[in-house]
Specification:
InterPro entries: NAD(P)-bd_dom_sf (IPR036291), NmrA-like (IPR008030), NmrA-type_oxidoreductase (IPR052718). By secondary structure, the protein is α/β, with parallel strands linked by helices. The chain is 45% helix and 14% strand. Bound molecules: NADP nicotinamide-adenine-dinucleotide phosphate.
Length: 283
């Protein structure tokens, strides 16, 4: 039994789709806090179990009989370590054969503010004594391509990453990598540093958007505080705006870059290119 937590989220759904291509649906459990969100998965034969990271009893029920668990990190910023500990503790009680966790690229050395919660979670996983795999995911390219509409409307793509190179990859590529690791009969590696094959700067992203739209969309680099103010002005919740502005500013110094090629090798094919990511977002 392979159990995927947060399976109602964007990454979780993609992992389940990829798992269904590799193992029988009846061996897959979608653990979600609101089961009404995944009726479509139940209809395809996936087991659905209710599991809230803040409710240890629900996690014990959800993880019963698990051989492998993928803990997808929560999006509840600031609460994540306590929530993840609840899942790790339940996995230890269930004596699972593998606990995989979606961490962040270079979690041990990362200067990103958001890496602290991932480092603490990784430490808790190691302390649990369970067999583990850390899927250290880099930036989703959708973090940028998801807001191209605003960039096109305003005639500029804003950010604070200066000329920093960003080895982002598609959510779908990270999801496929997770499914490959979970479905494999072979013992997985302990740590995978996962990122796109080709890094890009935000100037290069803006140039690609300009090329594909036929409109001039330059990259407008801003100081971190000004970018934070812009994000707050467009309505991002403060914690998320802080995280995005901090990450962009750290990216200026290489915090989101990687040239290991691990993700592409795991997938057995090149990762999605910037050209493809922009095309998909504009479609
Ligand atoms: N690498 C990157 O660039 C990047 C970018 C954004 C996020 N992330 C991280 O990667 C994770 C997965 O990404 P995503 O795109 O799938 O995010 P997402 O679509 O926001 O999904 C987050 C999931 O977390 C679940 N969740 C939140 N609190 C929970 C709780 N108390 N108990 C159980 N489940 C809970 C949500 O459940 P509901 O469906 O019930 O809301 C949702 O399914 C995020 O949560 C975040 O930690 C990474």
């Amino acid at each position: 039994m392979i159990i995927v937590t947060a399976a109602s989220g964007q990454l979780g759904r993609l992992v389940i789709q990829q798992l269904m291509q590799r193992v029988p649906a009846a061996q897959i459990v979608a653990a979600v806090r609101d089961v009404s969100k995944v009726a479509d998965l139940a209809a395809q034969g996936v087991q659905v179990r209710q599991a809230d990271y803040t409710d240890p009893a629900s996690l014990d029920r959800a993880l019963a009989g698990a051989s492998k668990v993928l803990l997808i990190s929560s999006n509840d910023l600031g609460q994540r370590v306590a929530q993840h500990r609840n899942v790790i503790d339940a996995a230890a009680r269930a004596k699972v054969g593998l606990l995989a966790y979606t961490s962040v690229l270079h979690a041990d050395t990362s200067t990103l503010g958001l890496a602290a919660e991932h480092r603490e979670t990784e430490a808790a996983i190691l302390a649990s004594g369970l067999p583990y795999t850390l899927l250290r995911n880099g930036w989703y390219v959708e973090n940028y391509t998801g807001s191209l509409g605003a960039a096109i409307a305003h005639g500029a793509l804003a950010g604070a990453a200066a000329d920093g190179r960003i080895a982002a990859a598609a959510r779908a590529d990270y999801a496929e990598a997770a499914a490959i690791v979970l479905a494999s009969a072979a013992a997985p590696q302990a740590i995978y540093e996962l990122a796109g094959d080709q890094s890009f700067t935000l100037t290069e992203l803006a140039a690609e958007v300009s090329r594909q739209t036929g409109k001039q969309i330059p990259y407008a680099n801003m100081p971190q505080q000004a970018y934070l103010d812009l994000l707050l002005n467009v309505g991002l919740p403060p914690a998320l705006a802080q995280l995005v502005a901090d990450s962009d500013a750290r990216a200026a110094h290489g915090a989101l870059d990687d040239n290991s090629g691990v993700l592409g090798r795991l997938l057995g094919r090149p990762t999605q290119t910037l050209e493809q990511a922009v095309r998909a977002a504009l479609a």
